[in-house]
Amino acid sequence: MIVCSCNVLTDHDVRSALHPDGGKASSAGEVHRCLGCSRKCGRCMHTIRKIMTDAGCAAGHAPAHVS
């Protein structure tokens, strides 16, 4: 699903920025930077935060690597 229409980012793109092996974003703003773009209108920020919460990112921290 498209999460950010300004930058055409999908939920998969957002998750890849959070993945311990692929990305290191620890905040919604860092997701854009990790993906090589910048926040524009900001409407996506709530959805990005929700994806981060669902992925186990709490209080702005990236998920721990689980073996």
TrEMBL record:
Keywords: 2Fe-2S, Electron transport, Iron, Iron-sulfur, Metal-binding, Transport. The keyword Cell cycle does not apply. Pfam families: Fer2_BFD (PF04324). Residues 2-52 form the BFD-like [2Fe-2S]-binding domain. The keyword Transmembrane does not apply. It comes from the Bacteria. One of its GO terms (molecular function) is metal ion binding. InterPro entries: BFD-associated_ferredoxin (IPR052371), BFD-like_2Fe2S-bd_dom (IPR007419), BFD-like_2Fe2S-bd_dom_sf (IPR041854). Belongs to the Bfd family. This is Bacterioferritin-associated ferredoxin. It comes from Rhodopseudomonas palustris. The lineage of its organism: Bacteria, Pseudomonadati, Pseudomonadota, Alphaproteobacteria, Hyphomicrobiales.
